[in-house]
């Protein structure tokens, strides 16, 4: 019988043949659950209650030293050795390379895919996240209009970048890829189900982004993965 992983002290593993997902259905969390569903990889989800500060427990830190969701544990990682991995972008690259899917094999197109993945990680996520924080979650804590103005303007600019990229293609790098999976949950978060910012950041102002978002959300894997792990 293999030794238990440290995280099992809080989140017991039922099936060690499966990838273990430790997450919450936030935009960053949805990236990985949707990718797992899209790739058809067997996985076992575990809910990490960030509202209860479970991300700061020693058990979770054993797979995510930065105390952020999502994280995975693949008992059958490279060389058939266990692999714990944090950072949603790194996880998406790992899953794509593990299966040979959702990332182009041609070198230049692969680099373009990674370019747009890092665009999400470095710009869309942080800027949209800060916008959401000040617009929805800290609205009663900060009366100065500057933060909302700053992040609203930057979010608009970034939506414009996406709109130009999508003006002549269905997805960010022609075929659907981890770049799309990384990005569309954050764009979706601007709407009614997330920050409720339609009035000041209407997606309809960016018709190519609007059509792309609809295409991404219409994929069956999104429907299966968007609420994983269940918070009920």
Task: Describe it.
The protein has 232 residues and is α+β, with helices and mostly antiparallel strands. The protein has two domains: 6-102, Glutaredoxin, CATH 3.40.30; 107-221, Up-down Bundle (Glutathione S-transferase Yfyf (Class Pi), Chain A, domain 2). It is 47% helix and 8% strand. It has eight helices and four strands; from the N terminus they run E-H-E-H-E-E-H-H-H-H-H-H. The protein has helices at residues 27-39, 58-61, 88-99, 107-137, 146-165, 178-188, 207-217, 220-225, and strands at residues 19-23, 43-47, 71-74, 83-86. A four-stranded mixed sheet has the order 2-1-3-4, with helices on one face. Strand 1 (19-23), helix 1 (27-39) and strand 2 form a beta-alpha-beta unit. Helix 4 (107-137) runs antiparallel to helix 5 (146-165), helix 4 packs parallel to helix 6 (178-188) and helix 6 crosses helix 7 (207-217). The longest helix is centred in the middle third of the chain and has 31 residues, at 107-137. The chain is globular and about 55 Å long. The two termini are 33 Å apart. The relative contact order is 0.15.
